[in-house]
Amino acid sequence: MMKLTNSITKTLFQKIKNISNSSKPPFSSSSLYKSIPKEKVDCLVIGAGIVGIAIAKELSINHGREDLVVDSAPIFGTGTSSRNSEVIHAGIYYPPNTLKAAFCFRGKELLYKYCRDHEIPHKQIGKLIVATGLSEVPKLTVLMTRGIQNGVEGLRMMEGYKATTLEPELQCVKALWSPSSGIVDSHSLMPSLVDYDHTMDLGRS
Ligand SMILES: Cc1cc2nc3c(=O)[nH]c(=O)nc-3n(C[C@H](O)[C@H](O)[C@H](O)COP(=O)(O)OP(=O)(O)OC[C@H]3O[C@@H](n4cnc5c(N)ncnc54)[C@H](O)[C@@H]3O)c2cc1C
């Protein structure tokens, strides 16, 4: 189990670690638990994926909250957040007037800024969404309309031969060019959000 905290005392961690390492089953000895000092925090975040650690950092840095992040894994970011495609999405896919669409669009801008400010490897390389057959072309049109409604700028439909000038290995009849899409190195992004001075591995939970 891992805990990230901005001010919980190390004594607490050591006591809990002693319990985890104890040969006795922990539930047989309630006195051990009683000996643990009760800690109070403003916010408890469960799950140290990208969402949890980003929320914790925001609460701590910009809102002055004392927060504690716990995870069942021994280190942060072992779940989906370290196994995804690392695409910074433009905001094309979610239906207009939904929170997902609004967060994706705004989050993209904030993420690019954060990456620039903190020197996180990233690139706004753009993305081609392709129709490999004529039957898929209407789907591209839907995505383009949706993207425009969501405020995504620069979307452009292009013929397949034009798309191959951007990516020669591509075979498609049409493509939707999304210039504001990009990629980010999530393995640099996540550690940048973590306060290592207050990160403790507590062994098994
Ligand atoms: C194949 C794939 C590709 C993707 N590609 C992209 C992409 O290119 N771009 C993009 O923006 N998004 C992408 N996503 C989505 C993105 O990865 C997720 O939205 C994001 O990682 C979710 O982060 P999270 O912190 O909510 O969850 P997670 O990263 O899953 O973190 C959850 C944490 O909670 C912990 N946990 C769970 N249950 C408990 C419990 N009971 N007690 C304690 N801890 C617990 C887990 O150990 C884990 O560390 C992709 C997703 C998938 C599956």
TrEMBL record:
EC class (word): oxidoreductase
EC number: 1.1.99.2
The keyword Flavoprotein is annotated on this UniProt entry: yes
Coiled-coil blocks: none
GO MF: (S)-2-hydroxyglutarate dehydrogenase activity
Cofactor(s) needed for function: FAD
Pfam family, any one: DAO
Membrane-spanning parts: none
Top-level lineage group: Eukaryota
Domain FAD dependent oxidoreductase: start-end pairs: 42-194
Alphabetical UniProt keywords: FAD, Flavoprotein, Oxidoreductase
Reactions catalysed, as given in the entry: (S)-2-hydroxyglutarate + A = 2-oxoglutarate + AH2
Entry's family note: Belongs to the L2HGDH family.
Name of protein: L-2-hydroxyglutarate dehydrogenase, mitochondrial
